[in-house]
Design brief:
This is NAD-dependent succinate-semialdehyde dehydrogenase. With about 475 residues, the chain is of the alpha/beta class. Helix content is about 40%, strand content about 20%. It folds into two domains: about 270 residues, Aldehyde Dehydrogenase, Chain A, domain 1, CATH 3.40.605.10; about 180 residues, Aldehyde Dehydrogenase, Chain A, domain 2 (3-Layer(aba) Sandwich), CATH 3.40.309. The chain contains 14 helices and 20 strands. Helix 1 crosses helix 7, helix 2 runs antiparallel to helix 5 and helix 9 crosses helix 10. The structure holds adenosine-5'-diphosphate.
Length: about 475
């Protein structure tokens, strides 16, 4: 029905302890295509009992998986990587159908998701420890790294594959086992990844996927004493709740939460480069990424010119279904998402913002929203504080560097920030003063498996990808050898 080359990648069951299973109750829930709303599949609506079993299996599997050599784990991960690329077209198609993003972007995400698997296959063999010069003659101090243990992962719908592999690949590389709950909107990409992991030789119980009731599954993930670590990507509100739920059992946590990225354009910027960066960082995935620019801060002298050039670039974006040729803007994920965007834009207009482009739902209907540019935006409007998660670029005006920094940092979030300037001294100065985990300087694209992704303040804790990403799944153990 989905027109896949390998139809067995479309799994409508959970993958628990190496078995494809339904919910105990037999219940399922539908997965729909955001482009038009058609039902494309049904997956099990599991709850606490199935999740408990997944963790018991993960706990049993941990005993043997932790004893495998790094090279053995690396070979399995490498095979998983190869399989993802072999099936890139089908995986991308499944993603576009359940998530809505244009097929070219979906293919790009599969390559990006696979890159995490390849990277951590390589990093598995470099989990080095330390030998520390001893303060006493009869002592040797050695530091080793060990897998944290059984892990739990909860992922969002905006990157249905990459948010999974950047958690599961380092967990497996470190020698941990992991149970995943994907977002309700996009379980099919997760289940297809599980199918390929099984084909790659990941043993039963090492990686399980449970779909269903978020709060029931999350309750076990955060409450079970078997689980040593929770890794979550999603909203700050849910992150806060999960963190509190993890407190009684003191779990290790990685949280990648909301953002409110500033994109600062200084007078000395290369404006054409800034516009290209703005398009890439704002309109990718129809604005539904946590590192999407949320506030454009443009210096007085180039404000009008930047607005004009940005509007011209936005006019070239093509809105439509993700499977259609040449489309760059798919629908938003669901009705609540578009209702939020609509209300943020209405609030801005009511408070004096000027619509430069777009500004309303798209004529296609459904959950398509017009790529939008708003000028004369001020800090009393909701767009200044709220994560838009849609294709809307609000332009704020500033006069001095100090003012830009103050506006940029005036948020509870601290994930990604961007700025454009050709002045070297300013580049260093501004980079230091931005309270963000990641700063794109003269670029609107920062995500790569080789660099540490993560935020500060209410944007979360921990880093994904890079050499730092493996440490999140390892504990440091100190051995003191006395009496030498
Ligand atoms: P988004 O706005 O991106 O949907 P959410 O934080 O609501 O962000 O969702 C991210 C992930 O968190 C999804 O997999 C969702 O099912 C899950 N989730 C939401 N609420 C809970 C909860 N109470 N317990 C566990 N997981 C939850």
């Amino acid at each position: 029905m989905l027109d896949l080359k390998d139809p067995s990648l479309l799994r409508q069951a959970c993958y628990i302890d190496g078995q494809w299973v339904g919910a105990d109750s037999g219940e399922t829930f539908p997965v729909t295509n955001p482009a038009g709303g058609a039902v494309i599949a049904h997956v099990p609506r599991c709850g606490a009992a199935e999740t408990e079993r997944a963790f018991q299996a993960a706990d049993r599997a941990f005993a043997t998986w932790r004893e495998t050599t790094a090279a053995e784990r690396a070979r399995i991960l490498r095979r998983w990587f190869d399989l993802m690329l072999t099936h890139q077209d089908d995986l991308a198609r499944i993603m576009t159908l359940e998530q809505g993003k244009p097929l070219a972007e979906a293919k790009g995400e599969i390559a990006y998701a696979a890159a995490y698997v390849e990277w951590f296959a390589e990093e598995a063999r470099r989990a080095y420890g330390d030998v520390i010069p001893s303060p006493a003659r009869d002592r040797q101090i050695v530091v080793t790294k060990e897998p944290v243990g059984v892990c739990a992962a909860i992922t969002p719908w905006n990157f249905p594959s990459a948010m999974i592999t950047r958690k599961v690949a380092p967990a497996l590389a470190a020698g941990c086992t992991i149970v995943l709950k994907p977002a309700e909107q996009t379980p099919l990409s997760a289940l297809a990844l599980a199918e390929l992991a099984a084909r790659a030789g990941v043993p039963a119980g090492v990686f399980s996927v449970v779909t269903g009731r978020a709060s029931a599954i999350g309750g076990v993930m955060t409450g079970s004493p078997l689980v040593r670590k929770l890794t979550f990507t999603g909203s700050t509100g849910v992150g806060r709740l999960l963190m509190a739920q993890c407190a009684p059992t003191i779990k290790k946590l990685s949280l990648e939460l909301g953002g409110n990225a500033p994109f600062i354009v200084f007078d000395d910027a290369d404006l054409d480069a800034a516009v290209a960066g703005a398009i890439a960082s704002k309109y990718r995935n129809a604005g539904q990424t946590c590192v999407c620019s949320n506030r454009f801060l443009v210096q007085d002298g180039v404000y009008d010119q930047f607005a004009e050039k940005l509007a011209a670039a936005v006019a070239l974006l093509k809105v439509g279904g993700g499977l259609e040729e040449g489309v760059t803007q798919g629908p938003l994920i669901d009705e609540p998402a578009i209702a939020k965007v609509e209300s943020l834009v209405e609030d801005a207009i009511a408070k004096g913002a000027r619509v430069v482009s777009g500004g309303k739902r798209h004529a296609l209907g459904g959950t398509w929203y017009e790529p939008t540019v708003l000028a004369d935006v001020s800090r009393d409007m909701e767009v200044a504080r709220e994560e838009i998660f849609g294709p809307v670029a609000p332009l704020f005006r500033f006069k001095t560097e100090d003012e830009a920094i103050a506006i940029a940092n005036d948020t509870e979030f601290g994930l990604a920030a961007y700025f454009y300037s050709k002045d070297h001294a300013r580049v260093w100065r501004v980079s230091r003063r931005l309270e963000y985990g990641m700063v794109g300087i003269n670029t609107g694209l920062i995500s790569t498996e080789v660099a540490p992704f993560g935020g500060v303040k209410c944007s979360g804790t921990g880093r994904e990808g890079s050499k730092y990403g493996l440490d999140e799944y390892m504990e440091v153990k100190y051995l003191a050898l006395g009496g030498l």
